[in-house]
Inverse folding.
C-alpha cells in the first residue's frame, strides 16, 4: 500500500481580513502591529483551545484545520464575538474585521499542507460571509445545529466558482444584523441577483434550413446578455432542452430558477425574415415587452447581428425597470443587496443632491449585505464622484479619494464588469485630468460589453474634452441609440459641453444644453453651463434666469465650489462667465 494517498475528514476554516489592502495603504505598520496583537492575544490561543491547527497563513488570511466541526464553529464564533468587542472603540475605517468560511470535507494530506475540494469550498464560503460574519456549508450546519446556542440563517443554494454543484449555505452575523439577514433570506427565494433564461426561438417557416438561423439568434442573445452583470443568464445547455416542446412558462421559470424569460420565433417568406421576441416575468407569466424585427436575408450574418443587438438593447433596460418596480414594493427588512442597489440606482438617475444623499447609505448597506457585489461598489463610487464633482457633501477631496478606493475595489472584485471599468476611468480622470487613461478604461469596458451605452456616452464626453468632436458625436449617438433615456445622459452632455466651451463654441453649448434639459429638467449642471455660454454670447438676462434655476435646484452652489469642478483644462473662463451671470462667489 506504499504511496497510497492519505485522506481524512476534517473541518476546514478559511478566514481573511476585510479591506486588507486599504488598511495597509492607510497605515502599513499600524495594521501589521494590530493584526499581530489580535493573533497573539485572541486568535492563536482560541485555535489552540479548540484543538485546531494553522495550516498556512496568507498575508491577510488563515487556513485552519479542526478534527471536530463543532469545535471549529465554536472557535470561529468566539473569535468573531471577541473581535466585535475589540473594535468597539476603534474608528470604523481602522478596524480589523474578519470574514470566516467553514466546510466539512475530505482532505488530502501533503506533509503539513492539505488539498481538496473541501478546502476550495471553505475559501468560497469565506468570500460569501459578511464582514464580521461566518458562512458555513450544509454539512457543517447539520452537525452543529442542535449543539450550539447561536443560530445560523439559511442562505440558500449558492453557485461557487470552480465547484461543480451548488452548495447550500448558512450564515451567522453579530446579533445586531442576524434578524435582518434571516428576514431577508425568508423573503428572497430566488438568487439575490435575478436570472434570465433565453428559450430556443421557434422556427415557424416550415423550412428546415432556417433552424440554424433561429438557433443562432438564441445563442447570440444568450452571449450578449451574459455581458451584462445585472443578471445571471441561464446557460444554453439548460435552455435548449426545451427546444421544440410545448411549454408552461411558469413551470419552466420554476425549473430553471429564472425570474425572467425571453422567447421568440422566426418566420421566413421569400428572401425576407421576421423575428418576434418577448420578455416575460416567469413567476406570474406577465408580458413585460414584445416587438418584431424584419430584415433581408441577403447577408444573413449581418442580419443576425442586427436583430440580436436590437433585442438585447430592448431587453436589458426593460429588465432593470421591472426589477426596480418589483423592489419598490418590498419593505425595508426585505431588501437584499440587489434590491438596495436597485433603489439607489433609481435615486441616482435624478442627478441631484437629494437623490445622491439618499442613494449612498443604500449602497453602503448593499455592500455590507454582499461585500462581493462589484456593482454596488461601482455605483457607490459613482455617487461619491457626483458628490465630489458638485461639492454636495463634506470635503470634495475626501469624497473623491473614497470614490477612487471603491471604484478600484469594484474592478478587483469583478474585472469582467464593464460598469466597473467605466466608473474607474471616470473617477480617476476626475482626480488627475488624465483623459487618455479614461479613454483606455472606456475601451476596456466596450471590449467586455459592446452594447454598454454608458461606456459609449462617457467615451463621447471624453473625446469632446480632448477636442475630438467628430469622434465624440459618433460615440454619443451610439450611446443614445442603445439607451435613449439613459440616466447618465445629462453627464455625457456636461462633458461634451466642457469641450465645446473650451473651443469657444458657445452657440453649440446652448443648443446642446437645451436638448439635454428636456430630458433632465432638474439637473442644475446643465443650467450652469447654459448660463455661462449665454453670458459669453452677451445674452445676460437669459443667463441670469438660468442662474435662478441653478440656485433653486442647488441653493448652496458657489463660484468657490465650482472651482473644483473636474475635467476643465482651464476653468477660469467658465467661472468668469458664471460670475457675470450672477452666481454667488461664496
Amino acid at each position: 500500500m506504499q504511496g497510497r494517498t492519505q485522506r481524512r475528514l476534517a473541518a476546514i476554516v478559511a478566514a481573511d481580513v476585510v479591506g486588507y489592502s486599504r488598511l495597509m495603504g492607510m497605515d502599513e505598520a499600524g495594521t501589521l502591529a494590530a493584526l499581530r496583537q489580535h493573533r497573539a492575544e485572541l486568535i492563536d490561543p482560541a485555535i489552540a483551545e479548540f484543538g485546531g491547527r494553522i495550516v498556512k497563513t496568507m498575508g491577510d488570511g488563515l487556513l485552519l484545520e479542526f478534527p471536530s466541526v463543532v469545535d471549529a464553529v465554536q472557535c470561529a464564533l468566539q473569535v468573531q464575538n471577541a473581535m466585535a468587542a475589540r473594535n468597539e472603540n476603534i474608528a470604523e475605517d481602522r478596524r480589523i474585521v474578519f470574514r470566516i468560511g467553514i466546510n466539512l470535507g475530505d482532505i488530502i494530506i501533503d506533509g503539513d499542507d492539505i488539498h481538496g475540494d473541501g478546502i476550495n469550498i471553505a475559501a468560497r464560503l469565506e468570500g460569501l460571509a459578511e464582514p464580521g460574519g461566518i458562512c458555513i456549508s450544509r454539512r457543517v450546519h447539520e452537525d452543529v445545529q442542535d449543539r450550539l446556542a447561536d443560530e445560523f440563517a439559511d442562505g440558500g443554494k449558492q453557485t461557487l466558482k470552480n465547484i461543480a454543484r451548488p452548495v447550500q449555505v448558512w450564515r451567522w452575523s453579530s446579533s445586531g444584523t442576524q434578524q435582518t439577514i434571516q428576514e431577508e433570506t425568508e423573503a428572497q427565494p430566488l438568487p439575490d441577483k435575478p436570472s434570465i433564461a433565453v428559450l430556443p426561438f421557434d422556427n415557424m417557416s416550415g423550412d428546415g434550413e432556417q433552424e440554424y438561423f433561429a438557433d443562432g439568434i438564441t445563442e447570440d442573445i444568450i452571449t450578449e446578455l451574459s455581458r451584462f452583470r445585472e443578471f445571471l443568464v441561464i446557460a444554453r445547455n439548460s435552455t435548449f432542452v426545451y427546444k421544440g416542446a410545448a411549454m408552461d412558462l411558469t413551470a419552466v421559470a420554476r425549473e430553471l430558477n429564472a425570474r425572467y424569460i425571453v422567447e421568440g420565433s422566426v418566420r421566413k417568406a421569400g428572401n425576407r425574415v421576421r423575428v418576434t421576441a418577448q420578455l416575460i416575468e416567469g413567476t406570474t407569466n406577465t408580458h413585460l415587452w414584445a416587438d418584431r424585427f424584419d430584415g433581408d436575408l441577403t447577408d444573413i450574418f449581418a442580419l443576425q447581428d442586427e436583430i440580436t443587438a436590437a433585442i438585447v438593447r430592448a431587453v436589458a433596460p426593460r429588465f432593470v425597470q421591472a426589477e426596480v418596480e418589483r423592489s419598490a414594493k418590498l419593505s425595508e427588512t426585505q431588501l437584499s443587496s440587489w434590491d438596495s442597489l436597485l433603489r439607489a440606482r433609481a435615486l441616482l438617475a435624478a442627478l441631484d443632491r437629494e437623490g445622491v444623499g439618499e442613494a449612498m447609505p443604500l449602497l453602503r448597506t448593499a455592500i455590507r449585505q454582499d461585500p462581493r457585489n462589484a456593482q454596488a461598489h461601482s455605483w457607490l463610487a459613482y455617487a461619491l464622484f457626483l458628490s465630489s464633482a458638485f461639492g454636495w457633501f463634506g470635503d470634495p477631496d475626501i469624497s473623491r479619494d473614497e470614490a477612487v478606493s471603491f471604484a478600484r475595489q469594484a474592478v478587483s472584485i469583478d474585472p469582467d464588469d464593464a460598469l466597473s471599468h467605466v466608473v474607474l476611468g471616470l473617477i480617476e480622470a476626475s482626480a488627475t485630468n488624465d483623459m487618455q487613461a479614461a479613454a483606455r478604461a472606456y475601451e476596456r469596458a466596450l471590449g467586455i460589453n459592446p452594447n454598454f451605452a454608458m461606456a459609449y456616452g462617457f467615451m463621447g464626453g471624453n473625446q469632446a474634452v480632448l477636442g475630438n468632436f467628430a469622434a465624440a458625436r459618433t460615440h454619443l449617438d451610439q450611446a443614445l441609440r442603445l439607451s435613449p433615456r439613459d440616466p447618465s445622459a445629462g453627464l455625457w452632455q456636461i462633458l461634451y459641453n466642457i469641450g465645446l466651451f473650451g473651443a469657444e463654441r458657445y452657440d453649440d453649448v446652448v443648443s446642446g444644453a437645451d436638448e439635454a434639459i428636456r430630458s433632465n429638467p432638474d439637473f442644475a449642471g446643465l443650467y450652469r453651463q447654459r448660463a455661462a455660454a449665454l453670458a459669453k454670447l452677451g445674452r445676460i438676462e437669459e443667463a441670469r434666469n438660468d442662474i435662478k434655476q441653478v440656485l433653486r435646484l442647488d441653493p448652496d452652489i458657489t463660484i468657490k465650489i465650482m472651482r473644483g469642478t473636474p475635467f476643465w483644462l482651464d476653468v477660469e473662463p467658465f467661472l468668469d462667465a458664471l460670475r457675470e451671470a450672477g452666481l454667488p462667489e461664496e
User: Anything to note?
Assistant: The first strand starts at residue 7 and ends at 17. The chain has 24 helices and 14 strands. Residues 32 and 329 are 46 Å apart (CA to CA). The longest helix spans residues 300-328.
